Amino acid sequence: MRDVAGKTAFVTGGASGIGLAMARSFAAAGMKVVIADIEQAALDAVQTEFEASNAEFLTCQVDVTDRDGMEAAAEATESRFGKVHVVCNNAGVAVGGRIDEMTYDDWDWVLDVNINGVVNGIRTFVERLKTHGEGGHFVNTASMAGHVSIPGLSVYTASKFAVVGISETMRADLMPHNIGVSVLCPGMVDTNILDAGRNRPRRFIHGARPWEESLPAEERDSFNDNIRASMIDPALVGEMVLHAIRTDEFYIFTHPNIEPMTQLRGNEIADAFARWRDYCEARDI
Ligand SMILES: NC(=O)c1ccc[n+]([C@@H]2O[C@H](COP(=O)([O-])OP(=O)(O)OC[C@H]3O[C@@H](n4cnc5c(N)ncnc54)[C@H](O)[C@@H]3O)[C@@H](O)[C@H]2O)c1
Questions:
Q1: Fold for domain 8-254?
Q2: Is 251 a residue of the active site?
């Protein structure tokens, strides 16, 4: 979608971090933006910021796991701006800790937001984008954790592999409708993700603990140092997403230095195929 000016973008998790950076980049490119988020206080701050600019925008409190709420947000968007062209399924949360420490509440909360939130964004908007026929673009926010498994992040990793899989499939499905798809796969970005528990609903509270406590004390400092050393500014990610929409790029990788990790996984898979090929040949299977 090379020509984005005047088009409308709907961004979930838009009141903080990467989503807010996307909204800022889109607005600077002349797009109308709908900033959807669960957190009213953050939306209020965004409202003040955007009111001070020339941007055409709407803030909208919605929980991406609430299907009726997402439908109401889509209707509010259409009544304000007419059509929606770009949908960024970006809202996401994380819990840290080893697999044996993960509670059902950890699994249910993270999978609900990170997978069902994306599913709900697709279901809410896909027919709308097809129907107006002007073309469009979905951006699903996954992570590098959608390509390489990160110890201590099992639940998050599961959710992000799912987002990559959904995105790869929908790219082919939506191509005939002139709807592009990108999957955003960042490494560490300087946002509020490590404080994701602030939006954890009470019904999923069992076992909830601050991120910091998910690691043994002796690992915490080096973990935090490593994370901080590789963090990039979300503004850069917002620009990358805008570029990917304009040029119809599918994968958006923010940390080229992580590429070898994906190759390690590919190599291990290739080695496993080779071993089993030998096994089958030896047994004439
Ligand atoms: N920050 C990173 O290093 C990083 C790396 C890879 C992927 N990501 C992904 O980027 C996306 C954005 O995260 P971020 O890093 O900007 O974090 P963030 O916490 O700064 O922003 C996430 C936003 O999502 C909102 N949100 C949470 N639950 C919601 C719900 N149920 N409904 C609607 N909104 C909800 C939050 O209120 C917040 O505004 C997430 O999908 C995250 O998994 C982040």
A1: Rossmann fold (3.40.50)
A2: no
